[in-house]
Amino acid sequence: MRAARVAERAETTRSALVAAARRLFVEKGYFGTSTEELVAAAGVGTRGALYHHFADKKALFLAVFEQVEEDLLAAVDTTTTSSSSGDALARLRHGLLGFLDASLQPEVQRILLVDGPAVLGWREWRAIEERYGLGAIHALLDLAVAEGTLPDQPLDVLAHILLAAIDEAALFIASADNPVSARDQAVSAVDQLLAGLAVALR
Q1: Which of 82, 113, 121 is nearest to 183 (CA)?
Q2: pLDDT mean across residues, the chain
Q3: Whether the predicted pLDDT of 119 surpasses 90
């Protein structure tokens, strides 16, 4: 019983730190947020509580980053599944454009697209993006080949190319002076890219 209570308190403290960091990293950015502010916003006492759960501020940022990724993937999965009346390429388009729409959200912009590469480094940021997005893209490409809406071809490289394209499009939106206009341009470009995938069947 005592061990269970200790574990519950530890999880409560960790969750409070992640929730506070998620809010502050959006409002002030990673580099504009101090560990003192994080501890105060979480209401966990001293920085010792932070360092008990996370090696440093970057490790806390990584936990927030992963949480935002998971929430985004769940939201995109839900909308993609709800569009199951279309073929696999239509559902792939729906999912990719859903990610571009999400790129307009302050949380996704700041944590995933602006601070993410800067804090984690390009290699680690790209590896996480692959872990969350590559499998879903590959699965829909597999299904499109099985349906006959996509020519049979090496799908590993195609999935990587599509993931890289959508990541770059999202970064383009996040850094644009007019993100809404940039989103519209990105949608047009992605539509042309996807339309070209099935051209060999015509």
Answers
A1: 113
A2: 89
A3: yes
Contact 100, 117 (CB under 8 A): no
Type of residue at 170: A
The predicted pLDDT at position 110 comes to: 95
Model confidence pTM above 0.70 = yes
HSE at residue 33, side-chain half, CA atoms within 13 A, is 28
Closest C-alpha to 133, from 114, 158, 160, 153? 160
Write down all domains in the chain, each with its CATH number in brackets.
1-54 (1.10.10), 58-201 (1.10.357.10)
Token output for 61: 């940022």
Alpha helices, DSSP H, located in the chain: 2-28, 35-42, 47-53, 57-82, 88-102, 106-107, 116-120, 122-147, 155-175, 179-197
Distance CA 67, CA 173 (A): 21
In a 10 Å sphere around its CB, with 0-12 CB exposed, 13-18 middle and 19+ buried, how is residue 174 labelled? buried
